[in-house]
Amino acid sequence: xxxxxxxxxxxxxxxxxxxxxxxGSTTLSDIEADCVTYGTEKGISISCLQSxxxxxxxxxxxxxxxxxxxxxxxxxxxxxxxxxxxxxISSVELPVIELHLSNIHAREEFRHTSYIAAxxxxxxxxxxxxxxxxxxxxxxxxxx
Length: 144
Description:
This protein is α/β, with parallel strands linked by helices. It has helices spanning 20-23, 28-42, 54-64, 83-92, 130-143; strands spanning 3-8, 45-50, 70-74, 96-100, 122-125.
């Protein structure tokens, strides 16, 4: 059975209350529960982790090697700043999908650059919480 790590970065613990006009009103707990349920329907084991700390995200990516079949990563603001996350993704040789709730290309200029885009298999952005299901389907399709 495939197993995916759904990894969420800084400030995503505030979903549901943080800028609902940009990120929607769905909470991270709701998203994680939906990922687990949807994964079960698809025959995938899903584990979820959120951290506001870059090093903890790097550690989780490292620990995923040999444990998970792939990673769905919403790195939040670290998308635009973290060479450490990019290097961690490159190091584990797992398929990773970059995910964003909002369309980062339609927002502030600094959000248009992703340090991790070049080392992931694809990017999903702008579909709100539905993007997580899209990412699960895309990662499963990539593995088949």
